[in-house]
Amino acid sequence: MKIGIVCYPTFGGSGVVATELGLELSKRGHEIHFITYSQPVRLELLSSNVHFHEVHVPEYPLFHYQPYELALSSKLVDMVKLHGIELFHVHYAIPHAYAAYMAQQMLEDEGIIVPIVTTLHGTDITLVGSHPFYKPAVTFSINKSDAVTSVSESLKKDTLRLFDIKKDIHVVPNFIDLDKHEPKFTDCQRLMMADDNERIITHISNFREVKRIPDVIKIFYNIQKELPAKLMLVGEGPEKEGAELLVEELGITDRVIFLGNSNEIDRILCFSDLFLLPSNTESFGLAALEAMASGVPVISTNTGGLPEVNEDGFSGYLSDVGAIKDMSANAVKILSDTNTLNKFKANAKTQSQKFDLHNIVPMYEKIYEETLKRF
Ligand code: GMT
Predict the structure, then answer these.
(1) pLDDT at 186
(2) Domain residue spans in the chain?
(3) Which residues have C-beta atoms less than 6 Å from ligand 1?
(4) What is the ipTM of this complex?
(5) Range 2-175+356-373 has CATH code 1.10.10.10
(6) Where in the numbering of this chain does the Glycosyl transferase family domain appear (predicted)?
(7) Are 149 and 169 contacting, i.e. CB atoms less than 8 angstroms apart?
(8) Which three-class secondary structure state does DSSP give residue 273?
(9) Which helix (DSSP H) or strand (DSSP E) does residue 202 occupy?
(10) Digit-coded pLDDT (tens) for 110-145
(11) Atom of ligand 1 nearest to the CA of 289
(12) What is the pLDDT of residue 294?
């Protein structure tokens, strides 16, 4: 199949999933066209059946807001005509499903039919899309999609609760390429980051409010009172400055390392002992899955799709949002004894196998095939 993938090309989970999906589909013989405003961060290697088409939005001083959706839908039309794209798979409803629908209408006018598969990732539903300003457009775009998928059962429920949806929603969980997380380093270079007797705790996110970064730091503060430990904070975002101040206020600057955005997540997870994800809401929690695939147990909240990913008492522990004491105690329970830690590490790896891309990507292929058959 010739598939046009539209996504946010940044470090956010939806862009990562879209990119990894496109790369795997290309390995399975499909021709993939990424259509977005810059090259997706995880799209390092272009091959003969992976293409990237940049959407340019000409700056015009008359416009206070430059019309990205318009540029995107025109680009989609052009790319279909140029490359014979048969299907659009858009990740994130806003504005991608909306722009794809416009493109579909323009193409239909010329007798070209291109169905749309929309994948909902969470923030487009729970945080942004349900805002009254966007809700009618989001509802419309979802209902006009030819197939709709969501990354967890929990997100499906939220979507049906928040919007008047007339379509079936197929749950296709996020996935992981387990080979990429097989330790290929003979030495994780752990000593570069911490002393031999210290546990390494990691958090990776885009440092938005929803990630509850102060909770990450407070949990770590409690842990390091009980055992020697270092905290690796990976990512950039609006909460980072506040995090730096809190670390200073708590007097733990020598134990917290801010690593910024990284393309070497597997390297960082290789030397990590525990992953913290105390989010307010999380439709899936791809970062937790990536940690587990590297054998890193997860302390998370029990919100949204996280209980579908992290199994309480097996791959880590789940707590209520804001339950800092509980999360700290669970972390110490895992970290203070090496046998327990090793058991949780092995369990985390086992749990991640449920999301092996070899089982999940065919689910998308089946949806594409069934959707195309209807036209
Ligand atoms: O979590 C973020 O801030 C990024 C966001 C996104 O839109 O890319 O992630 C969402 O999609 C990911 C991939 O499906 C999920 O793993 C995340 O849980 C989800 N984030 C939220 O629901 C807050």
Answers:
(1) 65
(2) 2-175+356-373, 178-355
(3) 12-14, 17, 121-123, 126, 151, 174, 206, 208, 210, 281-286
(4) 0.97
(5) no
(6) 195-350
(7) yes
(8) coil
(9) strand 199-204
(10) 999 999 999 999 888 887 877 888 999 999 999 999
(11) 16
(12) 95
> Distance, CA 206 to ligand 1 centroid (Å)?
10
Best of 6, 14, 92, 126 for a ligand 1 pocket test (most atoms within 8 Å of beta carbon)? 14
* Matching CATH number, 178-355, of 3.40.50.2000, 3.40.1160.10, 3.40.190.290, 3.40.50.2300: 3.40.50.2000
Give me ligand 1 centre to Cα 290, in Å.
13
In terms of residues, how long is the chain?
A: 375
> CA nearest 225: which of 90, 96, 332, 324?
332
Q: By the 8 A CB rule, do 276 and 219 touch?
A: yes
Residue of the CA atom closest to atom 12 of ligand 1: 13
What is d(CA 234, CA 11) in angstroms, rounded to the nearest whole number? 11
Lookup result for tokens 């842990």: 223
From 203, 283, 309, 357, mutation site for ligand 1 pocket: most ligand atoms within 8 A of C-beta: 283
Question: Nearest to residue 334, comparing CAs of 354, 348, 322, 350?
Answer: 348
Please indicate whether the domains covering 2-175+356-373 and 178-355 agree at the CATH topology level.
yes
Question: Residues 11-60: pLDDT tens digits?
Answer: 688 999 999 999 999 999 999 999 999 988 878 766 789 999 999 998 88
Task: Indicate the pTM of the whole model.
Answer: 0.94
Residue 14 has a CB neighbour count (10 Å cut-off) of 24
For residues 242 and 216, the answer to whether their CB atoms sit within 8 Å is: no
Where do we find the tokens 């946010």?
8
